[in-house]
From TrEMBL, chain A:
<dbReference type="GO" id="GO:0009055">
    <property type="term" value="F:electron transfer activity"/>
</dbReference>
<dbReference type="InterPro" id="IPR014729">
    <property type="entry name" value="Rossmann-like_a/b/a_fold"/>
</dbReference>
<feature type="binding site">
    <location>
        <begin position="226"/>
        <end position="227"/>
    </location>
    <ligand>
        <name>FAD</name>
    </ligand>
</feature>
<dbReference type="InterPro" id="IPR033947">
    <property type="entry name" value="ETF_alpha_N"/>
</dbReference>
<keyword id="KW-0249">Electron transport</keyword>
<dbReference type="GO" id="GO:0050660">
    <property type="term" value="F:flavin adenine dinucleotide binding"/>
</dbReference>
<keyword id="KW-0813">Transport</keyword>
<feature type="binding site">
    <location>
        <position position="278"/>
    </location>
    <ligand>
        <name>FAD</name>
    </ligand>
</feature>
<dbReference type="InterPro" id="IPR014731">
    <property type="entry name" value="ETF_asu_C"/>
</dbReference>
From TrEMBL, chain B:
<comment type="similarity">
    <text>Belongs to the ETF beta-subunit/FixA family.</text>
</comment>
<dbReference type="GO" id="GO:0009055">
    <property type="term" value="F:electron transfer activity"/>
</dbReference>
<keyword id="KW-0249">Electron transport</keyword>
<dbReference type="Pfam" id="PF01012">
    <property type="entry name" value="ETF"/>
</dbReference>
<protein>
    <recommendedName>
        <fullName>Electron transfer flavoprotein subunit beta</fullName>
    </recommendedName>
</protein>
<dbReference type="GO" id="GO:0046395">
    <property type="term" value="P:carboxylic acid catabolic process"/>
</dbReference>
<comment type="function">
    <text>The electron transfer flavoprotein serves as a specific electron acceptor for other dehydrogenases. It transfers the electrons to the main respiratory chain via ETF-ubiquinone oxidoreductase (ETF dehydrogenase).</text>
</comment>
<dbReference type="InterPro" id="IPR033948">
    <property type="entry name" value="ETF_beta_N"/>
</dbReference>
<dbReference type="InterPro" id="IPR014730">
    <property type="entry name" value="ETF_a/b_N"/>
</dbReference>
Amino acid sequence: MTVLVVAEHDHKILSDAGRRAVAAATALGGDVRVLVAGHHCGAVAEAAARLRGVTQVLLCDDPLYAHQLAEPLAVLIAALAADHQAVVAAATSHGKDVMPRVAGLLDVGQVSDITAIESPTVFQRPIYAGNVMARVCCEEPIRVLTIRTTAFAPAPEDGQAEITAIAAGPDPGLSRFVEDAMTRSERPKLGAARVVISGGRGVGSAEGFELLEAVADELGAAIGASRAAVDAGFVPNDYQVGQTGKIVAPELYIAVGISGAIQHWAGMKDSKVVVAINKDEECPMVQTADYALVGDLFEILPSLRDGLRQMKA
Amino acid sequence: MKVLVPVKRVVDYNVRVRARSDGSGVDLANLKMSMNPFDEIAMEAAVRLKEAGQVSEVVAVSIGTDACQDVLRTALAFGADRAVLVQTPEAALEPVVISRILKAIVDEEAPRLVLMGKQAIDDDCNQTAQMLAARLGWGQGTFACRLALADGEARVSREVDGGTRTVALPLPAVVSTDLRLNEPRYLKLPNIMKAKKKPLDIKPLESLGVNTSTGIRCLGVSEPPARKPGVRVESVEDLLHRLKHDAQVI
């Protein structure tokens, strides 16, 4: 069997999600090839070639892929897929955009957001906001799969695969890049952080989030948010954790002023340790967290920050 | 121009579902069903375009059993002009099959824009819009948080990891909606009454001649592993002590 992994990158660095997709592809068994399509992205191909289990890197370097638009990428991937039994990508916003388009071009069903691989054709994935786990069998001629990044460790870097340059595919001319507005942050990425501290409606304001940031600084944590906090404008929408936002599974998740609706739990319930800080002792987050501290977050957060500082000193 | 809005009938987002104890599926009997929340956002977006004079007709379509007529009536109450039910014997079809059916409807209706939710909250697949766009050979604007039509293009700002990306798509195109595109309106009683009189066509699936076979099947479902019961801590010192010594995460 030959598996094609679609590498996610910013043309310079292979993403952590891409390394996790390679690990999942290796678990399927067989030859793992990685497609690096982008512009001036040779360094990404070299990084992909070092990943354990990769037998070949296909490098498609062309201005057509400079913005990673789904329409030209899907045409390229679907053409390559004909020589593979499976195509795998991470279920990030990029993988979710491109892969179903590939499946549509191939006229095959896709299995989204896989959390476990039982066999080359049997997978587990969460449905109903993670309240139910489904076992899904895929017997399509080409299996198109996206994997949940938090369920797979990144592939280690001890391999040495060859890099083969391939020609660009046709330009379908169906979309045009206009602009990016990215949120700048010096903090660890939400999806990959070891510790996440998230705020909800209870934090009350954008200024309230500064209290979370002070604690995050002590912990080296990423900052997340509930939908309520995003909708209220306290933080940008790419901070959102939940069924419709990012899925995280850090070692420590601290939920501050978050009631814990099922849609939020769907995004963080695989965290190793969950801490709830909330004044409402009846809310689902307090009822279900591993450690719950009931009280006023505006008093608790500063003393948490001071306590962490003392522990380090 | 015409806009097509596919809508799905799903378990209401506030209802917590459980796997049947024999693992054969999810028990949906007697649960409250509603329009998929992302599809409400797509409906709202389509109706706003019509109210702005940029769209002449909004057609809602749903695929499933007769029970789906209720979400189509909801779509009509939002302001859709008419509705189409593609009647199927079973409620749950794979997105790849749905995309084939929607392609057949698009071929009949010839809309310039298909506006739909980014994912259904039951199967959480996030596939149908992209599959449909591929099948039609149209551009796709997935996870839209802003949408504007001008000069024969849809300008779509998309929610992506790390921020927002804006793309321009020549029409016709497929756009899938994210949560923050808009706030769906509250449906008023007179509109709900009016919706009862609007046309709702029923097309048997067989009449479309679509291949419904797929290599994907569900082998069974289970409850996710339960968390161990938690403990209530009394102070910040207590919390830090436990996180350091019991849980060993700081």
